[in-house]
Amino acid sequence: NNYQPTYTQNTENSQAKCTPNWNCGSWSQCSKSGSQTRTCTDSNNCGTSSGKPKTSQTCTYEYGLGDKVVVDGLSYTIHSKSEENQIGEYNEYIGFMGEKADGVFYVFDITIENVGKESETFWGSNIKIYDSQGRTFDHDTTAEIYLDDSFQYDQLQPGLPKRGKMVFDVPKGLSGKLEISSTDLFSDKKEYISWE
């Protein structure tokens, strides 16, 4: 990226115009603190910072599968994501007992641990899928009933991690990330986990 504002440079005997020619590198990866940087240099060496493009900005850090993510008093580790067309089982007398996806089920294997000092009830509504079109998807509690290891309004005691699964019914081929928000009503903290 080249930026060329005009700058007048004073010398002892004359005024010469110097036009900075800013060359900026690529932005660094987003840090966990939510910032990224780049370097910009003036190839004309005008000796001014006038018109210099910004070299730092805020960004949204995205964790990956296997990362431990702490949001206020709870930590989350997403171990894996699988896709299913239906969840449940066949019974020889009744037939299929379960739920069929309208699109496809994304099933996340997750560990949640209360890292606070008091017990908390986990409802699951603070974990959503946020897709590349800005849409959000809540977990499918009906499909989760048919899993043996789902989170159903669990009480989380401090220091005792629980592992289970969460299910989302989404359009096939959906790309996006998990959005984890605080369970504290007075906090707007959110973190993002990419599965791609």
Brief summary of the model shown:
By secondary structure, the chain is mainly beta.
Description of the molecule:
With 196 residues, the protein is an all-beta fold. It is 3% helix and 51% strand. The chain has one helix at residues 141-145; strands spanning 2-3, 7-10, 15-18, 22-24, 35-37, 40-42, 56-58, 62-64, 68-71, 74-91, 95-114, 120-122, 127-131, 136-137, 154-156, 162-170, 176-181, 190-194. The strands form 6 sheets. A 5-stranded mixed sheet has the order 8-18-17-13-14, with no helix packed on it. Strand 13 (127-131) and strand 14 form a beta hairpin. It is elongated. Mean pLDDT is 86; it is low at 11-15.
Could you outline the blueprint of secondary structure elements for this entry?
Blueprint: E1 2-3, E2 7-10, E3 15-18, E4 22-24, E5 35-37, E6 40-42, E7 56-58, E8 62-64, E9 68-71, E10 74-91, E11 95-114, E12 120-122, E13 127-131, E14 136-137, H1 141-145, E15 154-156, E16 162-170, E17 176-181, E18 190-194
Parallel strand pairs: 8-18
Antiparallel strand pairs: 1-4, 2-3, 4-6, 5-7, 9-10, 10-11, 11-16, 12-15, 13-14, 13-17, 17-18
**Gross morphology:** elongated
Distance between the termini: 29 Å
Low-confidence runs: 11-15
The overall pLDDT average reads 86
Give the number of helices.
1
Helix coverage percent of residues? under 10%
Give the beta-strand count.
18
Strand order of the largest sheet: 8-18-17-13-14
Structural class: mainly beta
Strand content: over 45%
Largest beta-sheet details: 5 strands, mixed
Secondary-structure element order, N to C: EEEEEEEEEEEEEEHEEEE
Gyration radius (Cα, Å) is 25 Å
